[in-house]
Amino acid sequence: MRHILRVSIVFSLIVGCLCQLQAQLDPLIGVWALDLSKSIYEPGPPPLRLSTTYRKTTEGYAFVSEGLDAQGRPFKVDGAVIFDGQYHPTAGSPNWDEVAFRPIDAFTSEVTRRKAGVVIQTARRVLSPDGTVLTITTNGVDATGRRTKEVAVYKKQR
Fold first, then answer.
1. How far apart are CA 22 and CA 36, in angstroms?
2. pLDDT, tens digit, for every residue of 36-77?
3. Domains defined along the chain, listed by start
């Protein structure tokens, strides 16, 4: 029984170290919080709070964005970041129901968002070289058809 406990502890430590190493090697993995003081939402208003968590998958990344909208209502959007230029479904967004990611370089990608098969937003995602800031600049329309421009600046939390 002691041997099993020791093996379990060692295994847990190894898995923890590997997860930490993977996060260091891949700076996108982890929790990102929206920095409202550096972000722009036109016409606005911005969400009260927003954080996005990225985790590695076999195809790319899975993400979950959670927060409070401008009226204080909680929301949650989840989907996949797969750099194949193909559309993949997302759940929970009133603005889009699928996204396509195309890599530009090691730090930059283009995103196209569609609702019911119609492109409604395009975005450029830029990860800072030090892996601490993620900036997403979006142009398009929201769920009500209003033209929008957003510059969402996220800071790495962990």
1. 28
2. 999 999 998 999 999 999 999 999 999 999 999 999 999 999
3. 27-156 (2.40.128.20)
